[in-house]
Every structure is written in C-alpha cells, then in structure tokens.
Amino acid sequence: MKTLKKSHESDTMSNRIVHISVQLFSNEELARQVTEECQLLDIMVTVLLYMMESCLIKSELQDEENSLHVVVNCGEALLKNNTYWPLVSDFINILSHQSVAKKFLEDHGLLVTWMNFVSFFQGMNLNKRELNEHVEFESQTYYAAFAAELEACAQPMWGLLSHCKVRETQEYTRNVVRYCLEALQDWFDAINFVDEPAPNQVTFHLPLHRYFAMFLSKAVKCQELDLDTILPDQEMLMKLMIHPLQIQASLSEIHSNMWVRNGLQIKGQAMTYVQSHFCNSMIDPDIYLLQVCASRLDPDYFISSVFERFKVVDLLTMASQHQNTVLDSEHERSMLEGALTFLVLLLSLRLHLGMTDDEILRAEMVAQLCMNDRTHSSLLDLIPENPNPKSGIIPGSLSFESVLSAVADFKAPVFEPGGSMQQGMYTPKAEVWDKEFDPVMVILRTVYRRDVQSAMDRYTAFLKQSGKFPGNPWPPYKKRTPLHPSYKGLIKLLHCKTLHIVLFTLLYKILMDHQNLSEHVLCMVLYLIELGLENSPEQESDEEESAGGQERCHDSWFPGSNLVSNMRHFINYVRVRVPETAPEVKREPPASTSSDGLASSQSSRRKSLQRENSGTAQVFSLVAERRKKFQEIINRNTSEANQVVRPKTSMKWSAPGATPQLTTAILEVKESILSLLIKLHHKLSGKQNSYYPPWLDDVDVLIHPEIPRYSHGDGMTAVERILLKAAVQSRLNKRIIEEICRKVTPPVPPKKISSAEKKTLDKEERRQKARERQQKLLAEFASRQKSFMETAMDVESPDVDVAMEVATSEQHVSEAIYDCVICGQSGPSTEDRPTGLVVLLQASSVLGQCRNSTEPKKLPTTEEEQIYPWDTCAALHDVRLTTLQRYFKDSSCLQAVSIGWEGGVYVQTCGHTLHIDCHKSYMESLRNDQVLQGFSVDKGEFTCPLCRQFANSVLPCYPGNNVERSLWQSHSNKCMQDLVQEVEDLQEQLGTFPVSISSETNLSKEMESVMKDIKSTTQKKYTDYSKSPGSPDNDFLFMYSVARTNLELELVHRGGNLCSGGASTAGKRSCLNQLFHVLAMHMRLYSIDSAYNPWRKLTQPMQDKNSELISEELPEVPVLYRDVSSLLLIQILTMPQPLHKEHFTCIIKVLFTLLYTQALAALSVKCSAEDRMAWKESGALKKNASSGEKSWEVLLGHVISELSKGKIYEEGDTEELTVVNPDSVECYLQQFCLPFLRITSLLQHHLFGGDLPSCQEDEEFTVLASCLGLLPSFQSAHQFTSASCLDWPVPAFDMVSQWCLELASFADRHPDQVKALLIQEPKWDLPHLLQLPENYNTIFQYYHRKTCTVCTKVPKDPAVCLVCGTFVCLKGLCCKQQSYCECVLHSQNCGAGTGIFLLINASVIIIIRGHRFCLWGSVYLDAHGEEDRDLRRGKPLYICKERYKVLEQQWVSHTFDHINKRWGPHYNGL
Questions:
Q1: What integer is the mean pLDDT of 197-222?
Q2: How many Å apart are CA 209 and CA 216, to the nearest integer?
Q3: Which helix (H) or strand (E) holds 574?
Q4: Rounded to the nearest 10 degrees, what angle do helices 715-729 and 519-534 cross at?
Q5: What is the rounded CA–CA span in Å between residue 957 and residue 1070?
Q6: Residue 1418 buriedness (CB in 10 A; 0-12 / 13-18 / 19+)
Q7: Residue 831 CB neighbour total at 10 angstroms
Q8: From CA 623, how far away is CA 916, in angstroms rounded?
C-alpha cells in the first residue's frame, strides 16, 4: 500500500500487481482458503481503511464548527489518480465468490469496519452555493469523487447484493441494514443534524443511504422480508429523507441556473449523477429511499417538506401577489416545475417497487430510443447495468436482443445529400410511441434537458404522421405497473389534503393567469390528479357522504383525504394575507399584476367568516404544518394519523422588518377542482361551453373508459380524460360535472381583456411587424439567396444559372450581368474592373484510371493477386506519345495528342461571382484573421463568401455576352469552300490581337495570373513532355489539354455518354466558357507557322509530294495518326473569340472527314486479307456513283487500295473481326466516331448555349450528329448511315489518297510500327475504385502482417491505396523521401495530390488532398450498421456498398473538398 502511495508510476505498478492478484483470487477454492487461513478479508478491509485515513479532512456539511465527521479529500492524489484501484478491484474480485461473501456478511466486526470505511465517503466533495462572486477556480475534483463512490462503495455493494437473492440469505440483509443504520445514526450525530438541512449546501455522495436503500429493495424483491421489520422508527426516516431530497431540489436549482456562479463543474456533477453508468447506484437508490420514506411517513408532512425544500411555498397562495424570501422571482417557475416533476417521478416510478428485470430493461430501452434514434453500441452503453460485471443483467445477453427487436426497428445507414455518414440506427416502433412512450422515464434518464424536448418533438411527429393528433400534444399519461404490497403507503401521498390544496391553488392560479406559471406546471398538476384517480384507495360510498359531508368540518379546505370526493368539494371563500398594495384589498377580482409581497395561502369555510375580527385568523402554512408534524413525531404523539389538519400561524424565517405591512383579504372563489377543470377546458379551447360530457351521448364510455382517442392529445384531451375518470369513479362526480356544464359560468376575467388574449394580441402584432421586416430583408436578399440556394442545396443542380444567364427573351441584351457576393453590386464585367467566378483548381488523375475492360479491378488479398497498371488510360496515352516522339518531329507530336490524363487540371465553380478587387481585399482580411482556418490563405485558398465552398482562384469573366447565342443561330447559306477559306484567313490573323489584349489591362493581368495558377496547380512532370525542356510547344499542349480534361471529366460525370441530355449536369457550376476565353487568349500568343498549319493539310491537296521525304529531319506526324479531338481544340482555341457558329460547324465537318478516314483505316487493318480484297473490289465498282463520297463501302475500298501501296498489310494478321457484314461495319464506324461527337457536342453546348437533346443509347450517334449540324436533314433511321454525315471540302478521294500516302511512306521506313500507331477504337470504361472484399477480416489478415516493399518491415500503421492497390506505411519514417512521408508521396504520384487510403488497423478511410487531409469515415460496418473505428469493439465488419459508392462518387466528381468539412494540414507527415 505504501509503495503504491509513494510510487510515481502508480498506474504501471497497479497493473502489474493486479495481473498477479487476479489469478490468485479468481479461483474460488484458493480465495476461500486464503480467506480462512490468512484472514484475507480483515487485511483487505483494514488496509483500505488505513489507506483512506491518510487523506481525511473535517466535513463541513451541516454544522461547520462542531462537526465531528471526517471525509476523504477528493483533491488528494490518492483519489485523483485512482491509486486505491488495485486493492478495491481485488476486494470486489474475492467478494464475487459465494463462500467468501458469506463469510464477510456473517462477520459483524468486518461489517462494522466496512461501514466505517463507507462513511468516509458520506458527504464528500461538498458544494457550497456561491451567492456573490463567481468562483475563481473551478475544481474538477468531482471526477474523483464520483469514481471513488462507484468503485470503492457501489461495486462492492453490487457484489454483495448478488449473493442476497434467496430467502435463506435474509440474515445477511438484516446484518447489513442494521450496521448501515448504526453508521447513519453516528453520521447524523457527528454532523449535529436535527431536522433542517443547512441552506445552500449539497453533496451528491451518500453511499450509506444507498447501501441501506439497495439492501431494502433486495430484501423485499428477492428475500420476501417484511419491510416494516427492518425499517427504523419515524424520526430516523424523517432524517433519512432529508439529504436525498436535498439532492433532488439542488438538481432543480442547478438546472434553474441558481448555481451558475459555481461554474460549469456543478452542472457536470448534476449530469454525472443521472448518467447511465452512475444512475442505478445514485439517483435510483435515492428516489427509492424517498419512496420508502414517503410510504411510511405522514403524507402531509412529506408533501410540505418537498415544497419547502424546493423553496416554492410562498408561491402557493391564491393571492395574485406574493413575496418569496428564499427565491428570486425569475427562478420561481422552474423550481415549481421541478417540485411537481419530482412528485410525479416519485409517484410514478416503479423501478424498485414491483417491476421485473425484463420490464425495467424494456422501459429503459424505450426511454433511450424515444429521445433519439440510437446505434446498437450506444444503446448497450446507455442502458444502466450493474457496475459489478459479475451481477445482474449482462448487456448482450439474449434478453437485450429480444427486447430490442420487440421495441425497435432497424434503420439501415442512409446518406444525406450533404454527404454526412449515417450509422445503422434503431428507431422505436409505431406501437411503442402509441402505447409505451413514458415521459416520466425520459425525464429521469435525460442527462441534457434538450433530450426531453427531443423526445416530445419526435412523439409529436409520430402523431402527425400517423394521423392520431394534428396539434402540439402533451406528454401522454402511461399506466403504471401495480405497486408491490409493501409500498402501498405511497398512494397516501396522492390522497392527502396538503396535495389537494396545492393542486386546487395551482389550477386556480393558472385559470386566473397569475405570473410564473407555465404549461408544464399545468401538465404536471393534471398528471398528479390523474395519478390520484388511477390509484384511489377504495371505492367511496356516494350516499353516506352526500348528506352530512358538507357540514362536517369548518376550517379545513376539504372534508376528507380522498381525491375522488375532494374533487367535487366547493370552496367558497379563501382568506389570503396580502400586501396592502395588492388589488385584492380593494375587493376587486385578482389582477395579474406583479408586486412583491408576502402571502401565505389560507382558507376558510363560511363559518370562519363570522370570526374574522376575533383575532384568531388562521393562516394555512405548509411550513408550519411540517414543523408541527415533526414535533408530534418526536414526542411520539401517535394520534396524528387521524387528526384533521389544523393550520397554525406561519413561522417563516425571514429577515425581521423585511416584510411589508400585511393585511387579510377575503377572496370569493366558489370553485371546486371539477369546476376549475371544466373552465380550464374552456380556456384551453378558447371557446365557451367547449366541454360536453361524452357519456350523455354514449353510456358505454363509462363502462369502457379506455378509449384510444383520449390516449394522445393536448391539455384539452387530458382534462377530458380526467373528468371521464372522475365520473367513472363516482356517480356524484358525474352528476356534478353535468350540473356545472349546464350552468357554465364564464370564468371571472381579471381585467377587461384577459392577459391570455392580450398575449395573443401582442403576439399577433409582433408577428405582423416581424413579417414586414422580413419582407424587406427578403427583397434585399432575393437575388443572392436564389443563386445561393440553387448552388448550396444539392451537388448536382440541373438549373441553368440565373446570374450567368442572359435574359434570353430579350435577344438584344448583349452583356451579361454579374452579382458580386462581397459588395453586393451588380453589373457587367469590364476591362478595368473585371468580375470573376469563384473556382477551385485541382490536379486530377481520375481520367487516367479509366480502363478498357469492364471487369472490375479487385484489391489484392493474397500474394497471387497483383495489380499491374498497364491497361489504364494514362499508361496507354503515355506509351503512344513516347512512340510518336521516337519517329516524328517533336513539335508536331505535341500537337497530335492530348495530355492531362494524369495530373490534368480540373476547374470547378460554385457559380458565385465577385469583383476581382473585392476578392483581393477579402483575401487580405483572411490573411489578418487569427482564427485557425482549415485552409492556407498563403496558397491562395479561401471559402466562397456566400456559400462557404472551398476555392483557390478566381476565373475572370470575359466582357460581353457570355454565350454567343442569338447572333449566329440561323444557318448561313455560305458554301463549304467559302467557310473553309474564312477559317484559314482568321487563323492567319493570329499575330494581330484585339486592342484589349495587346495593351495591359486589369483583365489581361488577371487572365495571366489565373493561367499561372492553373499551371502551378499540377506538378511539373505533368506539364513537360517535350524533348527540349521549356519549349513553347509544351505550354501550347498543356493549355488545350486543360480544356480537354474538363470536357472529358464532364462526360464522365454524365455517365460516359450524353443520352440524358439537358443542361450541363453542373448547370450553373460550369465555368468552361470563361475557361475557354482564358485559354484562347494565351493560345493565340503562339503563332503556328502556316506551312505546318494542320488546317491546310485537312482542306487542301498538297502540291509537291516529295519535298518532305528528302529533308533529313524527322517528318511531321501523319494526319491519320493525329488525335481528332485535340485538333478540334487547337482549331477552336486559336481562332479569334468570340467564334461564329458557322465557323465552328465548318471546323467540325472538316475534322469529321478525317475522323471517318481514321476509322476506315483502323477497320481495314482489322479485316482478314480476303475481306480486304472483297471490300476493295466492291468499293471500286460503286466508286463512280454520284454518292460515292458518302458511302463507306466506296471509301473503305479506296482506303484499302491506297494503303496497299505501302507495306502496311504485310505483317501477319493480329486480330480479326469475327463477322464482317455491313451492319457490324456501320456499328464499328459509329462507335469509333462517338467519343469525338460527344466532346464536340459538349463544347458546342458551352460555347453557344442551347440544351443537349436526350435520347436512347442506340440513337446517340444520329442525335448528336444532327445537333452538331453534320446531318443535312434527318432521315428515317433504317436507311441512315454514318457516311451520310460526311461533307468533303475538296474531292474525297484526293484527300484520302494524300493522307494514306503519308502512312505508306512511313511504313516503308518502319513497317513494324505502322499498325501500332493507328488510332484504335477507344473503349474506355468509367473510372472506378478497386473492388473490396465483402468481409473486412480478409483485408486485415493479409495486410496487417504484410511487409513494406520499401523498408521490408511490418509497418506500425499500414495503409493501402484504394485507387491502385499500393501498400504504404502511414507516418512511417522508414520510407520518408526528402521530408515527404510515403502516403503523401504516393498521393502525388498516383492521384496528382489526391490520395484515398484505407488504414488497415483502424478500418477508416483517410483522404489526402494537396497539403490537407481528412478522416472520411469507414466503408465497413458491423451487423448493426455501425462503424468500428480503430477496431475497438472487435465486431465482424462487412462492406457497405452504398458508402463505397458515395466515396467513389466524391472521388470522380472531385467534391471531397466541398462535402467533407474537417480538414487539417498534414505537414507531409502521413
């Protein structure tokens, strides 16, 4: 023990000790032997006692000066660090053995010592309410105090209780109770306790009370002991109830913010006291003990004590004004609510009073589920279990699962549009809401008050949804389990005059609209009345009372104590003590004005009116009542039970001289509880005569009063239910209710206009004003809000942007108007003050992950399975470019392909615009902002000022109309040749720029800076492909590839085709138009030498064919090897902007002829030699027909004959088309051309507006062709051929011959490469992440022992990339290269800065995006749909396909930055 106390490393040491001792003491035989031979129990208890004695301090509870009681000091290291833990844990361990526990419970000396030990904790960590200054230092010792009581007192108690389950063990219980009571008596003496607790003090730690309570409960529940034989006398019971009651009142005070100066820690204590791990060792025994005391003590005494402890006695007057000496008026309401709620809890809870364990479990579970939907694991955690693992209900046992399936439905994990991950939840079944929702249990178990509201909101929603009740319901009344016979006395509380007086007073006050009363108060009052009606002592005989009952007693409020008969008792006059200023003095009806005066409710029947001035005016006072009862009990005056309550003058302890002059006023009341209830019904419904006794129409109501329509509803329903129950229980009540309903007098209004109406009028007025203000604001924000709502609400909004759309109806409007989201002004974008779109630029390798097979790639989980990245789009494009560069001129190669499949730059926007100068000042303010942001302002990152979407650049909007719609819609009549010439002339102008660009303007500066941003977004290796580094060709290639990347990605987002049509999926989010302007401006800085201009090669037959062959440098790339989509972008972006639609169509037509020829060439290589001969001949026959140029057969024949001139077909046939019939050829040609048509249609959509048509998949080619203007007139489908789209600018055969000749001459030199370089039919599947196995264990078993390929060690934190399957060390220093850890490095190489990794040991996915990272969540869930982060719970996990789909969707759509909110910098350390 001493070593433990001195040791600094007490944790390590205690773990080592326990590892040994647990083996010794877990064996029952051994434990018993040691106990018998070595007095183990004595030693343990004594050591614990000595250990605690080292840190005792004097208790300040009750009587600070003379207290003899000592308690442990929770601030000591011994308690703070749980140093006592190994000893206590061994003690609990040996007590789990029946034989050892038996020895302990039989040994009186041991029990005395143990109770002595427990009393050290009695009253520890005393809280004193701070009344003036806020406490300077908030001590956190309460953690230690609660832990100590739970571990050192409660756990051994549960251990002992587990052996007291049968009748034979009665003796043990008697022993414990006896010594417990002795210890309690000593404690009361030591703290000098008489009958009043010291004010403003509370301790939550009363382990002796709780031992006493729990053993009593066990005695009655399991051992069939007669409770009265083990209960102490009345005086002791009175003392016992004081401190637990003090805790209940303090809870209410804490929640009313009366302890606010004690800091947050006091709220922490109040929460811990009811929290699931502590409640059944703390609040439950406390309430049970109070129930026992209430069932044995005089009910009037008990009720008075409650209201006095809650400090609301002064409020219970019928006068409209009073003065409360112990409570500020702002706390009165919540304290009154607290007192009534406590009474409802006390009278409703049956946890120890007759419920079986299964019923308790069910009630606990329903309460938790009603507050919120819960996951399986949190339910297990929230259901209180015995803290001692070897006792009671073991969660996870059969009964837990069976109860759960009986009360709840499983809700599989769903996804919200925001992308937040849901877990699998359990939600209450409809019949549970209908029959079992118990607000009382919910109130008892809520740690946060908001949970009660949450439960009510959910209940309301259920009633609305199921159509049971449309309005705002009140908490439903739930029938209770019958009381165990030992506790029948508890019912007396409901049938005592004091309670009835309080209920009557409160009903009256609510009806008269006195201040500080709430709906909650009324709700609890009605609940108590209903409880009383449900639990009436015995059926009264109506007749005998009806005659003489009235006259029997003069000066008491009610004739008897039975609520059923008291309800109909009319009270005519009440005398109240009020300040002279009160309105009652002037004989007016009570007004609802507030002033401070002291009043005590007092009553008198008519008789006492005559004695008004005889000096014997009696005031009814709860406090006096309680004092009198206490004296009687002390003097053993046992006749109190049948005495009628005789009020005595109040002995209020208020400061002398503080009370203003009091005077007595007489109120005319003339109401009974029944009449008040009926008037209340009228008041709640807002209609006169709203209550009509239901039994007058339907007598059955009285026979079967359980009518479903009364089970849910608001206050009116509750009142109707109560009146019905009252009528059922007594014929007299029924008659009186009918009488009252006939007379129906409107309740006396306190003013001309009742304050309730006034309130509603005020409310109306206020609402009206608020509405007007709102209208104004709304008008101001309308435009901003509209654009915001459209962008912020869903990631894919198909709407076309308002701000970016020109009013199409007014065709003459040429300038687009933009709203700046910072300064709020609207206007066009100008050269001097350009507007820009908020954009996020990110490097992306998603396109590079497309593969040309539809079979999914699996994550390797054995040594045999490996992934080779040969078939990815990126790899194939790389190989192609390298091959071209080997044989052809570099500058020409760099225009024959596109790059950006890996590390391409993707640009996306939220659709909001701002002035670029506003943006600069915004960035400046962010820079000076000290708040920790999730992004780096120095890198240009920011969040959109309006929708808070992450962004890192601003894309300038080109002045003028953003879409050249209206000007060029009409088809021009110029012939093809003219247009071709115009295009060429326009390209010749490259050197000359519009004025705006040549002179430095703000716009051109911004365009340059955004171009720099675009370049710096991706790594250098993804932009440099030329053999001579830094050549302008590189930039040229990079720029049109950016356009290509964005078009291709949009295509991927649409699912790889354009069948769905409509506006761009990104609708408003598309910034391609602005992006094209920026790119075009920069591309026009590079002039293409006219000799090499590809346009010439496409549109004019070359004159001299031999000059090329002689030159010794590498030739240009043959036209047939060039990528047509790249050529398209080069042509478009090098034309002066804005482009005319007719020129655009002309360029497409010319390029389509080339594309078609490429398709024919690729097809010809695939045929067998015989087929080739056949096509060649059939083509030659039809060649001279008029439509020869538009027939694929003719053209194919021509291509074959031209290519045969070279050595192209001489190689062995590699692959053959299985069937070569005309249909399959047509299909092949269409498939070959489709990707180009899709890209072109998207481009046209962005440049010129207009929606994309939607279509079936098999019609896609024809629809797009006609949309692009390639199809002259739409023919019927069956005779349609792709060749009919051709429109040759010059004779077809000349062009084709010229293009084929280039290949033939290349074939002569490099016959092996000719076929390889021919562009093949592209069949790319959409990009996907790796397919994961069903069971997580498969991944875990393979990877958690796998060695890293770099350092050959088993990593501490292994991770695997979900894009390519690479195994990496997370945070591993072993694999660090130039200060970059492996995951970060891999994210740059594999995803150009985006990495998706599965952490093997945590089952969690982590996303790296540039310099930031975030935890995404897990795609593996257990059988209950929950994550198991860090594999702590060790449950089997299964893939959740929906989640994985969401992850993949976010990866493909590049929305990680927008959807995941919790980003942090990784400093290259992952």
A1: 93
A2: 11
A3: strand 571-579
A4: 20
A5: 13
A6: buried
A7: 14
A8: 75
How far is the C-alpha of 331 from the C-alpha of 256, rounded, in Å? 6
Q: What confidence tens digit (pLDDT) does each residue in 227-243 have?
A: 899 999 999 999 999 99
Beta carbons of 1241 and 1267 less than 8 angstroms apart = yes
Nearest residue to 1118 (alpha-carbon basis) of 886, 1321, 889: 889
Instruction: Provide the strand spans (E) within 916-1024.
Output: 942-943, 950-951, 953-956
Q: What is the pLDDT of residue 10?
A: 64
Q: What sign does the dihedral 1185-1191-1197-1203 (CA atoms) show?
A: positive
Question: Cβ of 976: how many Cβ atoms within 10 Å?
Answer: 16
Residue 202 has a pLDDT of: 94
The pLDDT of residue 583 is 60
pLDDT in tens, 968-982: 444 455 677 777 777
> SS3 for 1156?
helix
Helix (H, G, I), strand (E, B) or coil at 1261: helix
Amino acid identity, position 595: S
Judge whether residue 628 has pLDDT over 80.
no
Angle value at C-alpha 732, between 727 and 733, nearest 5 degrees: 40
Q: Tell me the CB-side half-sphere exposure of residue 579, using CA atoms within 13 A.
A: 15
Q: Which amino acid is at 961?
A: N
CA 1009 to chain centroid: 40
Could you tell me the two tokens for 583?
Answer: 């309105």
Which stretch of 144-153, 1084-1093, 1210-1219 has the lowest confidence by average pLDDT?
Answer: 1210-1219
Query: In whole angstroms, how large is the CA radius of gyration of the chain?
Result: 44
What is the distance between the alpha carbons of residues 693 and 700, in angstroms, rounded to a whole number?
12
Q: Kindly give the interhelix angle for 207-221 and 234-255, rounded to the nearest 10 degrees.
A: 110
* CA distances (Å), origin 79, targets 50, 52, 121, 143, 1351: 14, 9, 11, 9, 47
* Sign of the four-CA dihedral 1212, 1218, 1223, 1227: negative
Chain centroid offset of residue 124 CA: 39
Structure tokens at 835: 């507007």
| Closest of 1155, 1131, 1154, 1152 to residue 1143, by C-alpha | 1131
Whole-angstrom distance, CA of residue 37 vs CA of residue 149: 30
> Is pLDDT above 90 for 1020?
no
Cβ atoms of 319 and 665 within 8 Å: the answer is yes
Distance CA 575, CA 616 (A): 12
Paired strand residues for 827 = 818
SS3 1436: coil
Decide: 1086 and 1079 in contact? Cβ < 8 Å.
no
pLDDT at residue 611 in the model: 29
Bridge partners (DSSP) of residue 851 are 872
How many whole angstroms separate alpha carbon 819 and alpha carbon 824?
6
Mean pLDDT over residues 1426-1436, rounded?
89
pLDDT attached to residue 521: 93
Count H helices and E strands in the chain, helices first: 57, 23
Distance CA 956, CA 914 (A): 9
Q: Omega of the bond prior to 1138 within 30 degrees of 0, cis?
A: yes
Rounded distance between C-alpha atoms, residue 386 and residue 399, angstroms = 15
Q: What is the pLDDT of residue 559?
A: 80
Give me 1390's structure tokens: 């594999």
CB 338 within 8 Å of CB 251: yes
Residue 425's DSSP bridge partners are 411
DSSP 149: I
* Max CA pair span of the chain: 140
Q: Do 585 and 665 form a contact (C-beta atoms < 8 A)?
A: yes
Is the pLDDT confidence value at 606 over 80?
A: no
Residue 359: which residues within 8 A CB-CB, separation 6 or more? 481
Cβ atoms of 196 and 326 within 8 Å: the answer is no
Angstrom distance (rounded) from CA 109 to CA 667 = 64
- What is the rounded distance in angstroms from the CA atom of residue 272 to the CA atom of residue 278? 7
